[in-house]
Write the structure tokens for this entry.
Amino acid sequence: MNTMTKNTKGFTLIELLVVITIIGVLTSLFVANMVSVRERAKDTRKKSNLNEFKTALRLYYNDNQNYPQAAAIPAPGASFSSAGGVVYMQEVPEYTNYAVDATGDGFTLGVDLDNLSDTEICESWDRCNVAGTCVVGTDATYYICAD
């Protein structure tokens, strides 16, 4: 009689390494996806804030019959108000650039997005007639303009 028996309880070292490797791959995919989701959420917030700023600029236009010159736009975080004390926006959101046309009847307002693959970036260039050629994956500035 053979008194040696094989103990078959538990996992082998190879099985444990395979499971750990699979968990590592799945974790890295999950983390990469979460970073992308976070970028898109931040960009959505920037676009929304820019639209609120557009509304404030339109209110200014209704009161003054022209859009403010670039020098009259406060820095992000400051309050946007008229010389008469009318507050159009409590806190100006982040923006990259602002330009008003020569007649004062139009403007272009831009903000840099984190997700360069956002197709709305180049669509905004076309909608607002921004000079130059937009390249998806290279250009980051999203624009809104007066309607």
In short: The beta strands are 80-81, 87-89, 97-100, 107-112, 141-145.
